[in-house]
Amino acid sequence: MHYAKLAALAAAVLSLAGAMPAAAQSQDANKVTDLGVYPPWQGGRNNDAAMRGFEFTIADADNLADFHGSPQDPMLSLYVGGNYFFAMAPLVAAFEQRYPEYKGRLYWETIPPGLLVRQMKMGGTITVGNMTWTVKPDVYLAGKNAVQKQMDDGLLVGPVVPYVTNTLAIMVPKGNPAKVTGLASLGNASIKLAMPNPEFEGIARQISSALEAAGGKPLADKVYKAKVADGTSILTHIHHRQTPLWIMQGKAQAGVTWQSEVAFQMQAGHPIEGVEIPAAQNQTAIYAGAMAKDAPHPEAAKRWLEFIRSPEALAIFGRYGFKPYQETTQ
């Protein structure tokens, strides 16, 4: 993946993609720190609510970065595995252009897939800080295996709809001061890591497989056991927010993410870059979705699952390096 090419491509579509406008980068130092480092990073563009009322977001204190739109009577609610949160605003805009009757009436969440499952099992109720609300999902979107598992467990109904694929990369600060050259570097005791938590972030399983491909089980154990024990690997709860944030704050020098997340951070103008992982060591994720059992809006759910494989949706994913799913991709 050529991140510089992706960043250049997205420069022409930043406003549609929801990334931070260049003007924000020229504000005073305090505002640049708040807007440039702390989530949600899109300056309100990932909010589908037409009437927003009093706007109150304090970047490092009161901030619901992964909850989008209004939970009051949505016409379509999406539970989306969080690692393509940045693509959702243009995807929603394209969907609403196709179906204008839904404009301003979508709600979506982008927390890790395992946490979305916990919320589904609680009837769609979630608490963040001092606020509790309930929105039952119409569609669950995550890795294909995770979607199939929830299908088998009775939380979803078929069919499983795959749409794009993604690969891993190593996210590092701009300039790569720790001189990370590949996965083997992550075993270095002097390099502090931010790593997805295996308990509820599915990417952790694929990272472990990639580490084993690069350095055998000893490397995987070093990163996910020894370095966790001594504090040089910090486990995230929500890697698509915490990994880039901790890197920009200087708390970590590297972390394995999806390559699309590196592409977004670079497109947003953040001081981050990526180290590519060779194909022989890399892992390919297949993204899929399915309708939730007892979905409140089944017709809207079917429309979204059809739309997500459309040429316009795949073109939006392509801005971040996702590839269209092919039946031969396994």
Write the layout of secondary structure elements.
Layout: H1 3-11, H2 14-17, H3 22-25, H4 29-37, E1 67-68, E2 76-80, H5 85-98, E3 106-109, H6 113-121, E4 125-128, E5 131-134, E6 139-143, H7 144-152, E7 156-173, E8 193-195, H8 203-230, E9 233-235, H9 239-249, E10 255-258, H10 259-267, E11 272-276, E12 284-292, H11 298-307, H12 311-318, E13 323-324
Parallel strand pairs: 2-3, 2-6, 8-9
Antiparallel strand pairs: 1-3, 4-5, 6-12, 7-10, 7-11, 7-12, 7-13
How does this structure look, described?
By secondary structure, this protein is α+β, with helices and mostly antiparallel strands. It has two domains: 201 residues, Periplasmic binding protein-like II (D-Maltodextrin-Binding Protein, domain 2); 111 residues, 3-Layer(aba) Sandwich (D-Maltodextrin-Binding Protein, domain 2), CATH 3.40.190.10. Helices cover 38% and strands 21% of the residues. It is built from twelve helices and 13 strands. The strands form three sheets. Strands 1, 2, 3, 6, 7, 10, 11, 12 and 13 form a nine-stranded mixed beta sheet that branches. Strand 8, helix 8 and strand 9 form a beta-alpha-beta unit. Helix 1 crosses helix 10. The radius of gyration is 19 Å and the shape is globular. This is ABC transporter substrate-binding protein. One of its GO terms (molecular function) is molybdate ion binding. Keywords: Signal.
